[in-house]
Amino acid sequence: MELYYVITISDRDRAEILANIYQTAGTGMVLTKLGRGTATGEQLSSYGLDATEKAIVSTVADAEQTRQIFKLSKRRLFIDVPGNGVMMAIPLKSVAGGRTGGKPAMDFSHELIMVIMNEGYSDTVMDAARSAGAGGGTVLHAKGTGRARAQKFFGVSLADEKDIVYIVAHADEKAAIMQAIADNAGPGTRAGAICFSLPISQVAGLRERDE
Q1: Which conformational region is residue 179 in: left (phi greater than 0), alpha (psi within -120 to 50 degrees), or beta?
Q2: What does the pLDDT look like over 26-57, one tens digit per residue?
Q3: Positions of E strands within the chain
Q4: pLDDT above 70 covers what percent of the chain?
Q5: 47 vs 85: CA distance, rounded Å
Q6: pLDDT at position 153, please?
Q7: Pairing of the two strands 86-91 and 202-204
Q8: Pairing mode of beta strands 86-91, 3-11
């Protein structure tokens, strides 16, 4: 069975509709997280995400459910039209308590860069990312849960307040964006950012690169 982690980033007033779409497609648990866009006034994000409040709605879905989610979202929310948010499907290798075995379509023209940093440094991270070609991102707030004897992970304290940034990038731009973040906001700086990327096998809502 092919399984995907489906994530949609859109305006908060669309969160309930998105959750309903996921459930209509037959998925089980739906998670909604709150965030904010990071695009500047001069550059309204290549991904249709401006500096408004955002909802990040996610679920785990099989191949058919994923197809239905994209279809319904295009029909009801015009998610394929830039400016209405971004929907992506990330292939999963395994899920505890579930079965995988099919081989997802692996067309990784885009990747999701996830950056974890000390609270208050998302602008520093995004400035670095934009210098390498990133169009915009979405910021979430989180709290580390490191144990007293294991406070560090790649030089970052786990027990402090954190910000997380999601950046959708073209695969051929990913390395430069991640390097810029590491050079300007990585471990050893006040931002203390670490980043990693996940492959995106299907995406909707991005502007064409030449725009």
Answers
A1: alpha
A2: 998 899 999 988 765 544 444 444 557 899 99
A3: 3-11, 30-37, 53-62, 86-91, 110-118, 138-143, 152-153, 156-157, 161-170, 194-200, 202-204
A4: 79
A5: 7
A6: 53
A7: antiparallel
A8: antiparallel
